[in-house]
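Page header: ASSEMBLY MODEL / two components / 522 residues total.
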Amino acid sequence: MKKIRLLVFSCMLVAGIQAQDMTPLVQKVRAKIEQVKDYVAVGTMKTDVSFIKAPIGKVKVYFKKPDLFSIKKEGGISLLPKGGVSINMSSLMATTSFVALSAGEAVVDGIKTRVVKLLPMNENSEVILTTLYIQEATLLVLKAVTSTRENGTYEMTMQYGAYQQYGLPDKVIFSFNTKDYKLPKGITLEFEEETKPLTEAEKIKNRKGRVEINYSAFTINQGLADAVFKK
Amino acid sequence: MWTLFQIEVYKIFRRPRTYIAFAAITGLIGIIQFGLKLDGEQYVEFMMRDITSSITIEGNILNGYQVCYIVLQVLLVHVPLLIALVAADMISGEANMGTLRLLLTKPISRDAFLVAKFMATMVYTLLLLIWLAILALFLNMLIFGTDDLFLLKSSYIVLLRENDIFWRYCGAFAFAALAMSTVAALGFLLSLFANNSIGPIVATMSIIVFLTILSTLNIPLFSYVKPYLFTTHMIGWKEFFDIKVNASNEALSGTIQHPMRIVQSAMVLLTHIVLFLLISIWVFRKKDILS
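Prediction written out in full:
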């Protein structure tokens, strides 16, 4: 009787583990993304950080497998979150060795998604944990939350349109944490009176930054030289 | 009046002292350009150390517009001292040489004589600023090229697009001309009270240093006085480099964050200039010319 109980418990445990393994789904998403070997995209980028006043700028975005990624503003200064190299899904899915676990379901922008936790097998990986919100029917990642060792946690939400068969979004919103910014008035030579100190709630709100990229066109798999990614 | 003005301008530019200011500005800007050209990257890294922990900045930050801003920030605090060298010498210099009494024996009114000297002082001030603009803006544009302007303020950062910068510099130099004219008018006024140049020059410099310190100190007691000090408004040129943002924190090209502050500061400076000139005329009318 004891042996039977143990056997039933073991079967349930194995079944449970198998149900949680999301590797096949992640592999399918990856296969879709991997259709794209390289791309050049044009679009606009908006930097929304409480202590930065910057206008919207036209940008050119370059990607080449496995993880070369660059955002360039022709002849201008661009501001990107630290660790912004992961601002695309391809870079995020570049790791081959990971454990994918199901974390239930969630609704993103009114769409039902499967929540998948990606844990890298490599102990020294910069990424500690990635949570993907995958629309199973279309194999599109609608949202990704990534925790890193050095650059904190950042979040990406994606909206798809014309290029969704390649898994390429029309719009990416990248949210990240910023640090407080303050320079002494003696350095900046400002004589104005001190402004009212911020409340704790305002300080927390100000520590969140957003970069929004709206893509207008992609040129896919036309070949791209590595020199483009050199700074 | 026109002839008097021409003579006064001629006299200013005949004096070697006049060229000290031009040489000083040339030397200072040259040193800054040399230093930034050779070691500018490290300077930029030092300035950006606080924000690069969370933001990556890509592009040519150390361009001509940026260097011009650095130069103006450093030099516009010291240029008043160079202006005082000539402005505070305008009447006292004549008194020192003994030519003031001689000049006033001519059939010209004291007012016309004084206004001609005042106008000549303003010409010197403007030419000094034009020289500053040539070296700080146009030469730096040639040496370092042009690009977006990335400015670090005390509590926020402003990024201005390349095509939205030049008009701001035009406005900033025009405002600086007003600020420097105020200093010139003060020096000119003080030059009426002495028979040698050293006293008014040192007095002008001392007043500017004293008032600048008062303007900088964030002590509540002084905050009642600060809005009336011309030194508080002399840095109003910086307002040209602040930009408005909309509700979604998107900077709006071609806008100024606080245009009324510029108008207000300009009015304060203009009032000081007029006041200093009127006092000068009043004092000079009553002055007993003995030298």
